[in-house]
Specification:
Layout: H1 2-5, H2 8-26, H3 32-63, H4 66-70
Length: 72
């Protein structure tokens, strides 16, 4: 859970989501509102996906033997 909370991309996506929520409450209801929500959702999904990919790559590096790592 810590890897999600302290990741810069996730923090940025959360701030964007908060801005979208505030704009939805206070702003006009026009064609831009659904686009803002779609953008916030995609941003959050990409940030979480990036954290998952980094985590998988780190676990793969740790599982390789030391000799295989030196050969790179």
């Amino acid at each position: 859970m810590r890897k999600y909370l302290f990741n810069g991309a996730v923090i940025s996506a959360a701030v964007g989501l908060w801005t979208t929520i505030r704009s939805s409450q206070n702003g006009p209801r026009d064609w831009r509102l659904p686009l803002m929500w779609i953008n916030a959702g995609i941003s959050l999904a990409l940030a979480v996906g990036a954290v998952l990919q980094e985590s998988r790559e780190a676990s793969e590096r740790e599982s390789k033997p030391v000799k295989a790592r030196k050969g790179r």
